Amino acid sequence: MRVLVAYASKYGATEGIAQRIGAALRGRELDVHVAKCADVAEAAGYDAYVVGSAAYEFNWRKDARKFVERNADELASHPVWLFSSGPLGTEKVDKEGKDVLKGAEPKQFTEYADLLHPRGTQVFRGAYDHDKIRGADRIIAWMPAIRDVMPQGDFREWDAIDAWATSIADALGTSAGGR
């Protein structure tokens, strides 16, 4: 079974998640291709899709949105899962007592629900390093008030990512053994 894991990442944290999902699926005997959304010219030819993006201000990156819009018919005709990354820190609930990951869902999860009928959606924590910020983001990231609020570090929960990838492999009916 051929699976495409397509992603849009700005600083590499989401790419790392996509690569980890791809590795976990390969370990379940799937033929997996992991690629940037912008680099996938043709999405046809796969049996299932996992699409993810970093989210900023509750929106996926433009490359991921364009990928879905360009390939909506193909994606909708196969099993598809969507993921997002973004929340920083380790808090499980916000100051109002709401689930942090649920509260960080991008608008696209709702927008694509009727379009793609995803079998699952998941938000993962991201990573942030002040020193790797570039371009226009540097202006905002170097403001003392922003630097003090943005927790720095790698908050990706690899066990949760592996478990989600395993659930995808289970849904696709792959064997429990690796290669």
TrEMBL record:
<dbReference type="InterPro" id="IPR029039">
    <property type="entry name" value="Flavoprotein-like_sf"/>
</dbReference>
<protein>
    <submittedName>
        <fullName>Flavodoxin domain-containing protein</fullName>
    </submittedName>
</protein>
<dbReference type="InterPro" id="IPR026816">
    <property type="entry name" value="Flavodoxin_dom"/>
</dbReference>
<dbReference type="Pfam" id="PF12724">
    <property type="entry name" value="Flavodoxin_5"/>
</dbReference>
<dbReference type="InterPro" id="IPR052200">
    <property type="entry name" value="Protoporphyrinogen_IX_DH"/>
</dbReference>
<dbReference type="InterPro" id="IPR008254">
    <property type="entry name" value="Flavodoxin/NO_synth"/>
</dbReference>
<feature type="domain" description="Flavodoxin-like">
    <location>
        <begin position="3"/>
        <end position="169"/>
    </location>
</feature>
